[in-house]
Amino acid sequence: MLQAIELRIERRIEASLATVWACITTPELIAHWFFTVDFKPVAGHRFTVTGASVPGWRGWTNVEILELEPPHRMVWKFDCVDEAPPSRVTFDLTEEGGGVRLVLTHEGEVPARTRQLLKEGWSSYLPRLAGLAGLAAKMPS
Amino acid sequence: MARGSAAHDVFGAIADPTRRRILERLGNTERSVNELTAGTGLTTSAISLHLQVLLRAGLVSRRVAGRHRFYRLDPAPLRDVADWAAQLSAFWAHNLDRLQQLAEEKDASSNRTED
């Protein structure tokens, strides 16, 4: 399977592994940083994230917990766009010098036409095209 | 969903290298089909078909003067494409900021309680 998109964000959190794990697997705590969801820390459990739709998001995402390895790893199946198969979101927690290193990856396929663009390095065209008309395009770093 | 499908058309429109070349060539200048065809090795009718796609995606606008048609770049829809790619990254960065704050505050307060 072609993985056209792979987003990776790393964070160093000054808290214990147990605390960070609790924050990502306890419904009341998840509501503080993510959304209010019907979360249960059980592989196979499904929940829906709903919110106000914005350009690029239809306003709801179906999530299924694919893997759960307390207190280190959780993988979600993340179905957020109509045009593409569900993507995968992985939370990896590692204890590191009294704190926690969190690595979040979001990988999967993007809509077929978009995938083609990514493959062709379309993003390099955008600043140039936008620049021609004096438009400041917001590009991901 | 109207907006979603419009964004989809933009993706399709700029997926094609010939159409991207047309957009780059337009720049800030209004050009005729003949001007846009020159040097491409393609026929004017092939270029016209590409221009139709760009027109439908809202990436170019057209002015008709007699038998001639002039095209101009309209870059607004490109913003949708760039935004789409940036959104996912911004979404997680924002949520992880809050997760980090929550976890650090929780441990800081429980440490104070223990002290």
From the structure above, extract its key features.
heterodimer; A: 141 residues; alpha+beta; Alpha-D-Glucose-1,6-Bisphosphate, Chain A, domain 4; six-stranded antiparallel beta sheet; 4 helices; 6 strands; B: 115 residues; Arc Repressor Mutant, subunit A; three-stranded antiparallel beta sheet; 5 helices; 12% strand; disordered N terminus
Question: How would you describe the overall organization of this protein?
Answer:
The complex is a heterodimer of chains A (141) and B (115). With 141 residues, chain A is of the alpha+beta class. Chain A has a domain at 10-107: Alpha-D-Glucose-1,6-Bisphosphate, Chain A, domain 4 (2-Layer Sandwich). Chain A contains 4 helices and 6 strands. Chain A has a 6-stranded antiparallel sheet with strand order 1-6-5-4-3-2, covered by helices on one side. Chain A is globular. Mean pLDDT of chain A is 76; it is low at 112-141. Chain B has 115 residues and is of the alpha+beta class. Chain B has a domain at 2-76: Winged helix-like DNA-binding domain superfamily/Winged helix DNA-binding domain (Arc Repressor Mutant, subunit A). Chain B is built from 5 helices and 3 strands. Chain B has helices at residues 2-15, 17-26, 33-37, 44-56, 76-114, and strands at 31-32, 60-65, 68-73. Chain B has a 3-stranded antiparallel sheet with strand order 1-3-2. In chain B, strand 2 and strand 3 form a beta hairpin. In chain B, helix 1 (2-15) packs antiparallel against helix 4 and helix 1 packs across helix 5. Chain B starts with a helix and ends with a helix. The model of chain B is unreliable at 1-5 (pLDDT under 50). Classes of the chains: A alpha+beta (141), B alpha+beta (115). At the A-B interface, strand 1, helix 1, helix 2, strand 6 and helix 3 of A face helix 1, helix 2 and helix 5 of B.
